[in-house]
Backbone:
């Protein structure tokens, strides 16, 4: 399976930098919820692929990524240099920040705690892994359900198309081409 970003620490650096650009200190709980949502929505947007190599487990409030929790326990480590992200990963994280960054840590925690992969794991206790397969299944089904009842693609509410300029200077939205699969006819 292809992973878009080599380390979840690079995703953390990007999200914290986006927060600082908006003159906001990102609370640890908020950071972990954003990481979780980024992983989930990336899988929906990119056919089940992972954004980062991360494992999410439950704590008393919701999902956390234990490695990030440990490394950032005393603030942002200054000895780790972030790796540059691809344009696709940067744009995706910018979209996640624009969509969910305005929410408080408490609102994000409440939102995510109601989602079945988190709720079921939390019902089992602390330090229970929330599997990637459960995340993909729930968020893919949720996007499909919301899309069926709306003219607006729910994924576009999270991951906004990139805006570029045409040859005449007019702004245009750009999305990756995803051809629809056509079922192969059955042979009788």
Residues:
């Amino acid at each position: 399976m292809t992973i878009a970003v080599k380390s979840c620490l690079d995703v953390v650096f990007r999200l914290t930098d986006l927060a600082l650009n908006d003159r906001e200190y990102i609370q640890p709980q908020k950071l972990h919820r954003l990481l979780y949502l980024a992983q989930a929505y990336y899988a929906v947007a990119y056919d089940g692929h992972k954004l980062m190599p991360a494992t999410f487990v439950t704590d008393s409030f919701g999902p956390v990524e234990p490695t990030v929790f440990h490394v950032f326990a005393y603030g942002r480590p200054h000895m780790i240099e972030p790796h540059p992200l691809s344009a696709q990963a940067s744009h995706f994280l910018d979209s996640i920040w624009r969509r969910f960054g305005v929410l408080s840590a408490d609102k994000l925690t409440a939102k995510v705690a109601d989602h079945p992969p988190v709720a079921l794991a939390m019902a089992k206790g602390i330090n229970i892994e929330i599997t990637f397969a459960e995340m993909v299944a729930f968020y893919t089904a949720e996007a499909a359900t919301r899309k069926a009842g709306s003219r607006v693609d729910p994924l576009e509410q999270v991951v906004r198309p990139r805006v570029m300029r045409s040859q005449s200077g007019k702004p245009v939205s750009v999305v990756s081409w995803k051809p629809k699969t056509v079922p192969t006819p059955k042979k009788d």
Summary: The first helix runs from residue 8 to 21.
